[in-house]
Write a structure and sequence with these properties.
With 213 residues, this protein is mostly helical. It is built from nine helices and no strands. It is elongated and about 50 Å long.
């Protein structure tokens, strides 16, 4: 009679053991789905290329630059598979991103969209900090002799402008590139100061900027 219990005991032992053997597999698959908080070095290095020299990306593109785009969309809050393939999901999220950034909504990643993408990875300026010396030295030039800045300008003077916009309370990436975000904040700054709202930094806007210091 005792021998009849042996198969039953073996079966019971297998049932008890099997759930524990599955747990490590489940944990591994969950970990694979978690995205890194820090931009991988191979994608970060792509930003050594100026935005205006980046590849134009659109639906159907298959390049490592698409991975940078997709990683940034995820970082921004638009869940996107990072697979290097510009498919329907990426196209939809690029359009959403462009709409929220005030860009032309066409699903094509050109210069202006790249400028915004790069800006997502810029360290925000500290409006409570001290103006860097190399930017303060630019103010040795009288406002009427300063460069006129507008969307598309790429100069160190743009950094002074962007730093000042941050100081004023308008969060702006300090990257030396006068993109859509900078233009929008310049227009807001001009409105706040009672200046002509045109998004162009000419003499009167420079006078106001110098006055911040």
């Amino acid at each position: 009679m005792k021998k009849k219990w042996i198969p039953m005991l073996l079966a019971f032992g297998l049932l008890v053991a099997s759930p524990f053997s599955l747990q490590p597999v489940e944990a591994t698959s969950h970990t694979a789905e978690v995205q890194e908080d820090k931009l991988p070095a191979n994608l970060e290095n792509l930003m050594n290329i100026a935005p205006e020299h980046q590849f134009t990306l659109r639906k159907g593109s298959k390049r490592i630059e698409v991975e940078l785009l997709q990683w940034t969309l995820n970082h921004y809050g638009l869940k996107t598979a990072v697979d290097g393939v510009f498919g329907a999901e990426t196209d939809k999220n690029v359009r959403q991103y462009q709409a929220e950034k005030g860009l032309t909504v066409d699903g094509i990643v050109g210069v202006n969209t790249w400028v915004a993408i790069y800006g997502e990875h810029e360290k925000p300026a500290d409006p409570e900090g001290e103006l860097p010396a190399e930017l303060r030295n630019l103010m040795d030039i009288a406002p009427e002799h300063q460069f006129i800045l507008r969307e598309g300008s790429k100069r160190i003077e743009v950094e002074l402008l962007q730093w000042t916009l941050n100081w004023h309370g308008l969060k702006t990436a300090v990257d030396g590139i006068f993109g859509p975000e900078t233009k929008r904040n310049v227009r807001q700054y001009q409105a706040d100061k009672g200046l002509k709202v045109d998004g162009i930094v000419g003499v009167n806007t420079w006078v106001a900027i110098y006055g911040e210091y």
